[in-house]
Write a structure and sequence with these properties.
heterodimer; A: alpha/beta; seven-stranded mixed β-sheet; four-stranded mixed β-sheet; 27 helices; 52% helix; B: alpha+beta; Porin; eight-stranded antiparallel barrel; two-stranded parallel sheet; 17% helix; 45% strand
Chain lengths: 732, 277
């Protein structure tokens, strides 16, 4: 265990060596990455840790040894799962900052300080978690919402108190006892209420104990109370600012007022909501309890910042930039747009923000066309909701999205994206997206003959000429055709967006050359990036592939394509064994089987002379921090892909531009995922999955998904793994 | 001749497949050699030891004992495709017939001397059958499985060669006392004491292959001879119903042994142990 001095020394060395030189956010933002040496949890043998915990438990006098021994098993595995998930940031700027906060809070308690392992979690959720092993995880969503360093310090104190009071294990034991009490005649609701009651008691205790710890530092007491306001409004974006449509306008493009929601709804006050079925007391009660403590204390001389306001603001901005990325990852485009819009007010020349907004505009264009769909299991399965379901200023973005017709949105998106590309010509994503938008706009029937390309006078003359062309009416059909032509011309006259690209047409040769002509000349994207590969036409390869797959599916064929592959990036194979009787995952058994599975995969791949590059958090050494980051990038990529509809192969993944670097680094664009889920006890079932995704084309090129009504025997697993490698290498 | 046709079929149908095959096998192991043990309960017929579970009242087996015919097999199999395995095997079996079918006797010698001696009777004792079945077959594995692992259906053709042996001192017919000087005369001539026969059958069944230690295969399931299965209804009421019902000493073994051999191969539970390479 590192002492405080050694920990501080390492942090100081990292800063001194320029490893954590602050990013220049006014220009760009680079997503957060883990740094330095990986902690012990990556390299330890978890089975030994569990065994040691249980041995120590057995030495003690305890009436709940069985329950606690189960807890130690589950908690250790859960901690390991979180740390190795790719979402935990290690030694990054935010985690180091949180640890510095802990140093301030526990400057007089080095023993406790050394027991803590504090990490930032890449999650947009506003929450924090504490485990009895001293692991504390703070979501970036929470950091993005915090208003001051003192608020964050209080929240950290609260979590530390959960640890010191052993709430996690106590809560587990109590919940299990309530669940196992079959003879009390209590209904499910009764049990839930009882569990929530215990949980609320723990939370209240952590609030008070946390305050005692907070009090030992010199932080402003009132910030502890205000921290509850932050939690209360956590469902709202980190700032509330009016969304002005002028943000998307130019001299030649003005969005009609009808698309701007002028009056937004008020914010509901739910501080006093019924918390009987909640694990936490409502914020009103919590504020009152803390208020009682504060009122008798002298708050003079206490401060909002001990470390530094500048550092806090910087770290919070990092978290806010990450929020843009996380919303994109979740395909939550309106929120990503709004978060980036807020930050853009502070950093108007930030390239990353222009990229995020461009991605949102492009994605919503695809969504409007039905090319971006959400998985039914996704939290956004209902798609982009109506503005009435949103509170306050973010309503304006939802209103604009829902009000503006799809074609107009596409026209507007090209305008913003292309101009951003010109502003940041070195941005690969912007270049690729601009190209993709040209392809997309070619298929938009915008209802006018053309955009104004020269200048207003000439354009007007052209329109007049068109209007004055009157056909000689010889029949009823001539009459109808004439009326329709007039209507088109009238539309042209009144279309507010006809001048949108005027200056570009007049002054930008690149734009003129790329903008699709009225003729059907094919446009070839100049970029080789995944964005440019997208073909939105209904008569394209993507659609054909989909049809082919459906036909194959009828024959029960699992293989999507007859690809031949010799090298893959192998993501951590997963093995989940579910104990039906206990209705939970058997962690120990799963872990043992996973080890065997990894060994089998390795052996069979070698036997087939198949090259695999393992990106497996279970096989890392303390110096493999790069692999942790690579794993995290791929995990995010997969998350975004599978949050979308499973048939939406080829729909761009917006979140992870870094994936192209991985393809270059590892020399292959194919990622192999192998996994097994098995049920034991009662009816036996085994699910086997192996699949390959091509990161370049964003398509699933191989898939083997099968369900067996039998045990997960070795021969079953060996056969299926061998089949996977054989068919990858030799084709089906 | 039949054996030659059988071998030609093997060469023409199987070898090109082996050469061109891209079957994955079990982790690349496509060949399997091994030993199989088949068990066929002797419900009505008798075992080589002369025992039967139910037996025929008219037969000479020891009824009411738990009795099974056993078959021993050696096999070689090859995974031709992902779900297709082909194999050849030889099965050795032995059994007996309990003489539960009546035999017609006509004494020509007596007739030449003016006496009319003809009767129908159950021969005494048993006669013994040993045989070899030569099989060529394929195992079609169910979807999701990969030969030689998993559940499968087996089908093929079977060439049965079997030899019947009898002991004239044990197996004979006796004229009744009504035939005067020929009364109690023993008729024990059923032709050569060792008679060889050959028949075809269609083999079908289902089973399950498991693999242990990536080398040892354990295969278990059920197997049947389809002709034997379809004729089981007739066999239940006796072989006489199948063709002309005239069983003479000359054709007695030929007719009844076919029936008995079908019975032995009608429905077998089996377990096989194989070695994969």
């Amino acid at each position: 265990m590192q002492s405080i001095s050694s920990r501080a020394f390492i942090s100081a060395m990292m800063v001194a060596s320029g490893l954590f030189a602050q990013q220049n956010l006014s220009e760009n933002y680079v997503p957060l990455k883990s740094q330095g040496t990986l902690p012990e949890v990556f390299t330890q043998d978890i089975k030994k840790v569990v065994k040691q915990d249980i041995t120590d438990l057995n030495k003690s006098k305890d009436n709940d040894k069985n329950l606690k021994s189960t807890y130690f098993t589950e908690a250790n595995y859960e901690i390991e799962k979180i740390v190795k998930s790719g979402n935990t940031l290690i030694n990054d700027e935010v985690s180091l900052y949180l640890n510095r906060l802990a140093d301030v809070l526990l400057k007089n308690n080095p023993t406790l300080r050394n027991e803590l392992h504090i990490y930032a979690l890449k999650s947009s959720v506003v929450n924090a978690y504490s485990y009895d092993k001293g692991y504390i995880f703070i979501d970036l969503g929470l950091i993005a919402q915090a208003e001051t360093e003192a608020q964050l310090a209080y929240i950290l104190s609260h979590e530390i108190s959960h640890y010191t009071k052993k709430h996690n294990i106590q809560g587990y034991v109590k919940n299990e006892k309530i669940d196992r009490d079959h003879y009390s005649g209590k209904s499910y609701d009764d049990k839930l209420l009882e569990k929530c009651q215990y949980s609320k008691e723990f939370e209240s205790e952590a609030d008070l104990e946390g305050f005692k710890l907070f009090e030992l530092s010199n932080y402003n007491f009132t910030q502890a109370e205000k921290a509850f306001d932050v939690l209360q409004y956590a469902h709202l974006p980190f700032e509330l600012v009016e969304f002005k449509k002028s943000f998307l306008e130019t001299d030649y493009f003005k969005i009609p007022d009808a698309y701007q929601l002028k009056e937004v709804s008020s914010i509901k006050n739910n501080a006093n909501e019924d918390d009987s079925k909640s694990t936490h007391p409502n914020t009103a009660k919590r504020k009152v309890a803390i208020g009682e403590l504060i009122k008798n204390r002298n708050n003079s001389g206490r401060v909002d910042y001990i470390l530094s306001e500048k550092d806090f603001m910087y770290v919070r901005d990092l978290a806010r930039f990450e929020m843009c990325r996380l919303y994109l990852k979740n395909r939550d485009y309106p929120n990503a747009f709004y978060a980036a819009y807020i930050l853009e007010q502070k950093y108007p020349n930030n390239q990353y923000l222009a990229e995020v907004i461009s991605k949102c505009l492009y994605a919503i264009s695809l969504y409007d066309k039905g090319d971006v769909r959400y998985n039914k299991d996704s939290h956004l399965s209902d798609g982009i909701v109506g503005h009435s379901e949103i509170e306050s200023y973010p309503q304006q973005i939802y209103f604009l999205i829902n009000k503006m017709p799809a074609n107009e949105w596409t026209i507007m998106s090209l305008n913003y994206i292309y101009r951003s590309h010109k502003k940041f010509p070195n941005s690969v994503p912007l270049n690729a997206m601009a190209d993709s938008m040209f392809t997309l706009i070619k298929n938009v029937s915008w209802g006018i003959s053309d955009f104004v390309r020269t200048d207003q006078k000439k354009a007007a003359e052209t329109v007049v000429k068109k209007d004055t062309v009157v056909k000689e009416i010889k029949s009823k059909t001539d009459m109808i055709a004439n009326i329709q032509q007039e209507r088109i011309n009238n539309n042209h006259d009144t279309a507010y967006y006809k001048d949108i690209y005027l200056d570009l047409f007049m002054n930008d040769k690149e734009f003129v050359s790329k903008f699709p002509a009225a003729s059907n000349v094919e446009f070839t994207p100049s970029s080789g990036s995944g964005f440019g590969d997208y073909k939105p036409s209904r008569n394209n390869d993507y659609v054909k592939t989909e049809v082919k797959r459906k036909k194959k599916g009828k024959k029960g064929d699992n293989i999507e394509n007859n690809v031949k592959i010799e090298k893959v990036i192998l993501l951590e194979p997963f093995y989940i064994q579910i104990d039906r009787a206990a209705d939970k995952i058997d962690n120990l058994s799963s872990d043992q089987k996973q080890e065997k599975l990894i060994e089998t995969v390795k052996t069979i791949a070698e036997k087939e002379n198949f090259q695999t590059v393992a990106l497996d958090p279970g096989l890392l050494t303390s110096g493999d921090v790069d692999k942790v980051n690579d794993y995290s990038v791929l995990n995010d990529w997969f998350f975004e892909k599978f949050d979308g509809d499973r048939n939406s192969d080829g729909v761009p993944i917006f979140n992870t531009d870094q994936v192209e670097n991985l393809v270059k680094k590892y020399g292959t664009s194919y990622v192999l995922k192998i996994g097994i889920i098995s049920l034991k006890g009662g009816r036996k079932r085994t699910w086997f999955y192996s699949g390959i995704i091509d990161l370049k084309t964003n398509k699933e090129v191989f898939k083997l998904y099968e369900v067996f009504r039998e045990k997960d025997t070795r021969d079953l697993i060996n056969s299926k793994i061998y089949q996977t490698f054989f068919e990858l290498k030799h084709g089906k | 001749m039949i054996k030659r046709i059988f071998l030609c079929f093997l060469v023409i149908a199987v070898l090109p497949g082996i050469i061109k095959s891209q079957a994955p096998g079990y982790i690349g192991k496509r060949f399997q050699v091994g030993y199989g043990f088949y068990l066929s309960p002797a419900f009505m017929g008798s075992t080589y030891q002369g025992n039967s579970i139910f037996g025929y009242h008219s037969g000479n087996a020891n009824r009411g004992t738990f009795a099974c015919n056993t078959i021993h097999e050696g096999f070689v199999e090859y995974a031709l495709k992902k779900r297709l395995m082909i194999g050849v095997s030889v099965r050795y079996f032995r059994t007996s017939f309990d003489n539960s079918v009546q035999c017609f006797v006509y004494d020509a010698e007596a007739s030449s001397q003016g006496a009319s001696v003809s009767f129908v009777e159950f021969p005494s004792g048993l006669y013994y059958i040993t045989g070899l079945n030569y099989q060529i077959y394929n195992k079609l594995y169910f979807k999701k499985y990969i030969a030689p692992w998993g559940r499968y259906l087996i089908s093929g053709i079977s060439l049965r060669t079997f030899t019947c042996r009898y002991n004239p001192d044990e197996m004979f017919l006796s004229a009744s006392s009504n035939f005067g000087q020929y009364s109690n005369k023993k008729y024990s001539d059923f032709g050569p004491q060792q008679q060889k026969f050959m028949r075809f059958d269609i083999m079908a069944g289902f089973g399950r292959n498991r693999v242990f230690g990536n080398r040892i295969s354990v295969d278990y399931g059920f197997n049947t001879g389809l002709i034997g299965l379809f004729t089981s209804l007739f066999d239940a009421i006796g072989p006489e119903s199948l063709s002309d019902n005239l069983y003479t000493q000359a054709n007695y073994m030929k007719k009844t042994s076919v029936w008995r051999v079908r019975g032995v191969n009608r429905l077998n539970a089996f377990i096989k142990i194989g070695y994969l390479f």
